[in-house]
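User: Show me a protein chain along with its predicted structure.
Assistant: Here is one chain, sequence first, then C-alpha cells.
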Amino acid sequence: MGDFFQNGVITTLHHLRPRPLEEMEQELLEFARVRPMALVLPSLYSELQGPALENIVQELCQVPYLTEIVIGLDRADEEKFQHAREYFGRLPQRHRILWQDGPRLQALDQQLQTFGLAPAEMGKGRNVWYCYGYILASDRAKAVALHDCDIVTYERGLLARLIYPVANPAFNYQFCKGYYSRTASGSINGRVCRLLVTPLIRALKQVVG
C-alpha cells in the first residue's frame, strides 16, 4: 500500500523487492542452529488428491532449514492413513503424521475431555491444536510455521518469508501471519478488509471528512 499504513501493534512487512531465495534460506540455516524450525500442515485426506498439495510437497522437499514437519491428517480411515504415510514419505526432513481419526489420538482426546481440555469441535482448529501440542511436547522446535495445503500458487519462498521474522534471533516478533494475492472470478478475496478496506476508509475520512 502506498502510505505504508501500520495497524497498531501489528507490523506489515511489505514485499518491496525480490530478495534471492537462496540468500534467505542460507540465513535461515544459520538461525536453525539456535532456533530450530518446524512446519505444521493441517490437511484433509481429500487434499492428497489435488494438484496444490502435490506441488507443496515437491517444494518442501527442497527446503533445507526445517527440523521437522508435522502433518495433521483429517477425515482418513486406516487405509487412507497408510496411503498418506507413503505420500509424505518422500519428504527428506524428519516428519510425523498426526492421524486425527486414529485410535491413539482418539484415546488421547477422550482422556483430555475428562479434564475439560480437549477441543470441543472437530475441524481445522482441533487439528492444529494437537499438532502444536505435539511440537511443544517433543521440544524439537523453537519457531513454528503453519500454512494450508490448498495453495495452488505455492513456492517455497512463501514459507521462507513467513517464518523469517519469528526465526531471526535478532527480531522480537512472536507471531507472523502471511498473506498473498487471492483473486478468482473477477473478485478480490483474502485479507481485503484489514489491508485494503480499513486503510482506504481511514484515508478517505482524513482527506474528505
